[in-house]
Amino acid sequence: MSESPAPIAGVITRLLDALAEAGRRVPEPPPSPVTLDDGAAALFSIAGQAGATLFSVWAEEEETGGVASGISLFFSVPDEAGARGLLGTQREAVRVRSELDLYRPLGEAISSLANRGADSRRPERGGVPFPLGASDPDIDFRVHFADGALGTWVTAVARDRRTRAAFPSFRELPMSTEDAVSLDELFFELSALFNGQPVLFSGERGSGRTTTLHAAMEALPDNVRGLAVLDEPRALDSRIGMTRPGEAGMLGTLRAFLRQDPDVVLADEVRTPEELAFLLQSALTGHATLAVIEAPTPEAALARLREAMPELPVSAFIVHHTRDAKSGARTITLHR
After folding, report:
1. Is 2 within the bounds of a domain?
2. E strands within 212-260?
3. Same domain, 194 and 322
4. How far apart are CA 151 and CA 153, in angstroms?
5. Which helix (H) or strand (E) holds 111?
6. Alpha carbon 237 to chain centroid distance?
7. I need a labelling partner for 242 at 20 to 30 A (CA). Which of 90, 167, 195, 257 fits?
8. How far apart are CA 263 and CA 277, in angstroms?
9. Using one digit for the tens of pLDDT, what is the confidence trace for 18-52?
10. Are 202 and 303 within one domain?
């Protein structure tokens, strides 16, 4: 454990002062850090206690030719009356500058704390619980690392229990282990979905279709860029931009999405043949396309596809959901 550059304690003090000025409480401020490891732990403690939705440790070149670095905490606040955005919230930031010579070593300390690369499939990701060391934490920070010439840009996204429950892994869903592994590999690799084959999450209302769509979002690789139209969007991380259909409706929102050329397009819920036809065209033009539709059987889901595009040139992959009327038990089956 190396001694910290002197600025780390000062940066933490300035951050606490800035939060207090913004009306953001930190009930139990961490001790003044002595080492970089202390400073890294203090950042997560402060962000967790203050209720930040994410924070970043950053450095970037300025127009004047210099380089600025600092720490930014972001908070979600409700939109003002009459100005409701697509997510229903807006983001407020609390920022402090830090010395540039702190940027690289602090990024390295956070990498160590977050156990960066523990998942060999996701070498640019780590995780930190809050409180530190908790097995079932109030908040689980998903930490992303982007290496650059100046050091490592760190982005930590706060995931509370509700968010973690809303975005489960496939292994937590009512399907066979074999199917869970198959879906996890499909959405992590993605290559099979760039050949025009759409993925439909079918079933009746209340059967768990949206939860499975969320599991697919959770399985996507870190280098993907996706856009999702959801009735109830919830912040996940930087891979996927989420929005409500808004005044433009599902079809208008999807058209706007495609102009941004995302890797993945996700829609919940597709209700009309026109919306479904547009998504099928999205799949055929090289975008991995995932959609939730209402259909009582896989055959009914396929019939809806053929209604939307009678000359469908590729087969669909249907993930079908059923719910027992008496017991309420849910089952998920795959139909290729």
Report:
1. no
2. 226-230, 240-243
3. yes
4. 7
5. helix 100-113
6. 3
7. 195
8. 18
9. 999 999 999 999 999 999 999 999 999 999 999 99
10. yes
Q: How confident is the model at residue 85 (pLDDT cuts 50, 70, 90)?
A: very low
Same domain, 88 and 218: no
Domain membership of residue 143 (yes or no) is yes
Same domain, 68 and 201: no
Task: List the CATH number of the domain containing 30.
Answer: 3.30.450.90
Nearest partner of 130 among 62, 66, 55, judged by Cα:
55
Q: Which helix (H) or strand (E) holds 187?
A: helix 177-189
What is the pTM for the complete model shown?
0.83
CA dist list (Å): 217 to 56, 169, 264: 22, 9, 10
Measure the CA angle with vertex 126, ends 188 and 113; round to 5°: 170
Residue 280 belongs to a domain: yes
Beta strands 125-130 and 240-243, pairing class: unpaired
Transcribe 275-312 into DSSP letters: HHHHHHHHHHTT-EEEEE---SSHHHHHHHHHHH-TT-
Read off the pLDDT of each residue in 279-287 and give the average, rounded to a whole number: 92
The verdict on 98 and 143 lying in the same domain is yes
Residue pLDDT, tens place only, 193-234: 888 899 999 999 999 999 999 999 999 998 888 989 888 777
In this structure, are 202 and 138 located in the same domain? no
DSSP single-letter state for residue 35: B
Residue that is written with structure tokens 């999405």 in the block: 257
Contact 153, 107 (CB under 8 A): yes
